Amino acid sequence: MARHDRFTTPIPSSWVGPIRISGNAIDEEIKVPLATYETPLWPSVGRGARISRLVEGGIRATVVDERMTRSSLFVARDAAHAFEAWTAIRDREEELREAVSAQSRFARLIEVHEEIVGNLLYIRFAFTTGDASGHNMVTQAAEKLMSLILSWELGLEYGSVSGNYCSDKKATAVNGVLGRGRSTVAEILIPHEIVETRLRSSAEKIADIVVRKNLVGSTIAGALRSANAHYANMLLAFYLATGQDAANIVEGSQGITYAEARPEGLYFSCTLPHLIVGTVGNGKHLEAVEEALQRLGCREDREPGANARRLAAMIAAAVLCGELSLLAAQTNQGELMRSHIQLERGERN
Predict the structure, then answer these.
(1) Cβ count within 10 A of residue 261
(2) Does 5 participate in catalysis according to the annotation?
(3) Is 65 in the active site?
(4) Topology (CATH level 3) of domain 12-65+181-348
(5) Does the annotation count 38 as an active-site position?
(6) Which residue in 30, 209, 212, 301 is deepest, having the highest Cβ count within 10 Å?
């Protein structure tokens, strides 16, 4: 592409909050950056953020797993030879681990899974990647592993360095089952009084709409391991503001909202099994992104992966804020559209 063909697209952006977040990656109140053309998202997330500051501990965000994957495709003569080759590869898994560690400071091979379809052998490699989301890191590692495996002369031929069993930027089941990205759960317990006065709803109404809209509605729509109202809105806004690969909201927005009406209040959670995010790598060199990551505290000298886990926790908390606010609004007929019209007219004026 010629240099004169490049241009910058302005996106309205705002710092929202602060959100009170606790958990295994962060424990503080902090504002978060959201870049979006759907600017009513700011006050919506802001309402959830205010709720978080009224509750002891705020939103608890737990990063439960982290990995990045790449699946490589090999071609065998037939299924029997594919299985024979896979058995030999599995027996030499330690050699694969050593090969990855030898070529990278941060990539570490942690799991290997296979699928055989006809004469095709798919091998799904899972790695930890430090603070990087890891797209390029795992592709480079997979290239190394493919060359090593092919050198063993197991009767395999090269198929593709990426065989779609990864699975990258596609809505699939495998990422939820085997993991890809930083799996994070955000949850909050809100006293009944706060639900009624600040959300103009009740624990029972919100728990009901979670089941009827998110769980049942998503099921009859054919959703794939996903039952939520609008995770993609908050994810895209946060991804754009922090230099993430925005296309990863495809799998990132696959997640489950869950709620219970308890004696002490509303339990509300958002489970995001595959947040593909990082604090180093492509997109992070931009001035606005660097400033945002510094302000978020993601440029501190911590153990590898800690800054990215911190970012994932903040993203999950922002998702919960927006999800809670929207669902509470939808328990009251007319409130959602009325709020949008008021906010959008106010901005134009």
Answers:
(1) 16
(2) no
(3) no
(4) 3.90.770
(5) yes
(6) 209
